[in-house]
Amino acid sequence: MNLFSVPFPKISPTTYLKIIALISLSVIFILTVLQPFGTASFEHDYKYPLLAGYGIVIFLSSLLYYFSIEQVISSRMMDKWSVIHEVLFLFVNVIFCLVGCYFYWGFVFGAKMNAVRFFNFILSAFSVAIVPIVVYLIFIYMKYREVKMVGGVNSNVEKTSILIKGTNKKETVVLNPDHLLFVESNNNYVILNILEDEKVTRKMIRCTLNNLLSQLDDNFMKCHRSYIVNLNKILNLTGNITNTKLHLVASETKIPVSRNQVEGLRKLSGK
């Protein structure tokens, strides 16, 4: 398994904020309600605000880390972001947060800090954090293992093909639009699901869904805020008006359809 060859869409600031906010609230809940690691026996007039402080430290540390890293990551590296980059990014993020928590523990609780305590604190805390990291690694690998990152300029466009350009103009993909089944949005990227030799291949390009739609013809329709479909490849629609799913040729993916797009989609596709 070559993790450098498995692309991963770099997370957007908005999504990252939501994730770290959820993690911070989870930490606050665990420490104040479940009270593990001996916190149940901890006595203090401001016990719960102090324990909640760990969650706040994690949020602020993650925020500082993210925007610091954003300043040093080049656009070229962003376009080649892979699973291993994401794992390393997460790993360092966790360490950064744990260091912040260690100093919070030392200064707020007046604990004596030294190299041995620092090492033991990081080791014990990371032994807990390693489980979700491994789970996350498996999840993103399974999700993107068949996705290929497109790149390079290709001016050799056949009459039956179109040239799709990403946000980075050097990032292009040439394809026959009739072979494009659907497009799915993923943060600042889109994943093209293309039928090649009777097999669906998935290619990722840095682009917004609306920008990509503007490069396609009238045979394509945005049926959901996260999906564009090829009207000529629709097999049928299932479900009711509030939970309509779209089925395509050669694809097992059940694509959601926005409620306000159902009738229009039925008329255009004849299904």
General description of the model:
With 271 residues, the protein is α+β, with helices and mostly antiparallel strands. It is 45% helix and 21% strand. It folds into two domains: 3-145, no CATH class; 150-269, OB fold (Dihydrolipoamide Acetyltransferase, E2P). The longest helix is centred in the middle third of the chain and has 30 residues, at 115-144. The radius of gyration is 24 Å and the shape is elongated.
Q: Structural class of the secondary elements?
A: alpha+beta
| Oligomerization | single chain
| Cα-atom radius of gyration | 24 Å
**Widest β-sheet, arrangement of strands:** 1-6-5-4-8-7
Largest sheet: 6 strands, mixed
Q: End-to-end distance, in Å?
A: 41 Å
Q: Which overall shape is indicated by the principal axes computed on the Cα atoms?
A: elongated
What is this entry, summarized?
The chain is of the alpha+beta class and 271 residues long. It has helices spanning 13-34, 47-72, 75-79, 83-108, 115-144, 209-213, 262-269; strands at residues 147-149, 162-165, 172-175, 180-186, 189-196, 199-206, 220-224, 227-230, 234-238, 244-248, 255-257. Helix 1 (13-34) runs antiparallel to helix 2 and helix 2 (47-72) runs antiparallel to helix 4.
Give the topology, please.
Elements: H1 13-34, H2 47-72, H3 75-79, H4 83-108, H5 115-144, E1 147-149, E2 162-165, E3 172-175, E4 180-186, E5 189-196, E6 199-206, H6 209-213, E7 220-224, E8 227-230, E9 234-238, E10 244-248, E11 255-257, H7 262-269
Parallel strand pairs: 1-6
Antiparallel strand pairs: 2-3, 4-5, 4-8, 5-6, 7-8, 9-10, 10-11
